[in-house]
Specification:
The complex is a heterodimer of chains A (about 200) and B (about 180). Chain A has one domain: Beta Barrel (Lipocalin). Helix content of chain A is about 15%, strand content about 50%. Chain A contains 2 helices and 11 strands, in the order αββββββαβββββ. Chain A is elongated and about 85 Å long. In chain A, about 20% of the residues are buried. In chain B, about 65% of the residues lie in helices and about 5% in strands. Chain B has about 180 residues and is mainly alpha-helical. A two-stranded antiparallel sheet of chain B has the order 1-2. The radius of gyration of chain B is 19 Å and the shape is elongated. Chain B has a single domain, classed as Fumarate Reductase Cytochrome B subunit. In chain B, helix 1 runs antiparallel to helix 2, helix 2 crosses helix 3 and helix 3 runs antiparallel to helix 4. The chains are: A alpha+beta (about 200), B mainly alpha (about 180). Chains A and B meet through helix 2 of A and helix 4 of B.
């Protein structure tokens, strides 16, 4: 009888432990962008005259994401980027882009993205919707997100990486001189490649 | 007239340097103020800044030569009262300092990413400082304000020259125009 009780307790506690572990797996995981090691990139491309692409990037940004594999609709990504860190590999162009003619970084130094929803399409694919604020204008945008991979890193951490694509419309952001670039420059493709370290 | 300055007169090298740089700098200012408002599809959109940069680099070279020339030459005696003389000496030195700031800040915009400046397709003025992302914006602000400020300084300089010519009736203006001095 006493032995029986011991066995019962053991079995119950074993079940409990498995339960706690499963709960831990199901809980949200929190990640921070790997900014220190800079395994995160935000690039843009916009047509020049309609004849070719100009490619540039933002060098300074930060963000975090949380992922819940059991409830992907809870997935969230938030980021902030320093607009003045724009780099299209041409000093005079970047100076002009930062000026009041375009991004007006003195008045609007930050751009932000805050998730409103996430819709899973398949195991590693989804549509991330959110509020994107640039030059003081907030727009609802959706980003197609693909998980590239995840796993332990060799240094004791755990990482997940994603890429994302979205298209912005230049005329949405009321830049003083956006019009001079012509119709070919209406769409701006944004590309994100983001690796996060689990916290 | 001789090449070199005397204690009474400017030699023609100094006179040519003065007027060549005066015309170039006023031209640079006008071109600069005009070109920043050009439409992207304007045929001058790339050509105007190219001329501005090229001419600016030539004026920077002229400024370096002018400082050298001033250093190794006599200066005509300054005209006016004692307090005017020291004011004028520093007003003239102020031109060199101010010009240097405008010219160098312009140079620092175009060379911010470590690339040299093409001067009329004749040669490349090299980027002497290491690339520094973001310098173009800081240098740009300095360049714009000091360029506008320098035009004010030039206006004061021209007014002072007229004052000497009309009110004091001395040879200040005549000297820089190359007229022989009346003074013995």
């Amino acid at each position: 009888m006493k032995l029986n009780m011991k066995w019962k307790l053991l079995v119950i506690s074993a079940f409990l432990m498995v339960g706690i572990q499963q709960q831990a797996w199901a809980a949200e995981e929190h990640y921070k962008f790997d900014i220190k090691g800079q395994h995160a990139f935000i690039e843009f491309q916009i047509k020049h005259l309609g004849y070719s692409w100009i490619i540039g990037r933002f060098d300074r940004f930060d963000g975090s994401f949380s992922i819940d594999d059991e409830h992907p609709e809870h997935n969230r990504v938030n980021m902030t980027l320093d607009v003045s860190s724009i780099d299209s590999n041409h000093a005079e162009r970047d100076k002009h882009l930062r000026s009041a003619d375009f991004f007006d970084v003195a008045k609007f130094p930050k751009a932000t993205f805050v998730t409103t929803s996430y819709h899973q399409i398949s195991k590693d694919k989804g549509i991330l919707k959110g509020k994107f604020t640039l030059r003081g204008v907030t727009k609802d945008i959706s980003i197609e997100v693909v998980q590239i991979g995840q796993g332990a890193d060799p240094w004791g951490g755990y990482r997940r990486g994603f890429e994302g694509h979205t298209t912005l419309h230049l005329s949405d952001y009321h830049m003083a001189k956006a019009g001079i670039l012509g119709k070919a420059a209406e769409n701006v493709e944004l590309y994100f490649s983001i690796e996060g370290i689990r916290q | 007239m001789q090449w070199r300055n005397t204690t009474q007169q400017y030699g023609w090298v100094s006179i040519v340097l003065h007027w060549l740089m005066a015309l170039s700098i006023i031209g640079l200012f006008a071109l600069g103020a005009w070109m920043v408002n050009l439409d992207y599809y304007d045929t001058w959109y790339h050509r105007a800044p190219w001329i501005h940069r090229s001419l600016g680099m030539l004026v920077l070279i002229l400024l370096i030569f002018r400082l050298y020339w001033r250093w190794w030459n006599l200066q005509p005696i300054l005209l006016g009262k004692a307090w005017e003389k020291s004011l004028v000496l520093w007003a003239h030195r102020g031109h060199y300092i101010w010009m240097a700031i405008v010219l160098v800040s312009g140079y620092l915009i175009s060379t911010a990413y470590g690339r040299g400046i093409d001067v009329f397709g004749w040669f490349e003025f090299p980027a002497l400082l290491p690339a520094a992302k973001g310098r173009e914006s800081v240098a740009g602000v300095v360049h714009m304000y000091t360029a506008w400020g320098f035009m004010g300084y030039v206006a004061l300089h021209a007014m002072a020259a007229m004052k000497h010519h009309i009110m004091d009736r001395d040879d200040s203006l005549k000297r820089i125009l190359g007229y022989p001095s009346n003074k013995k």
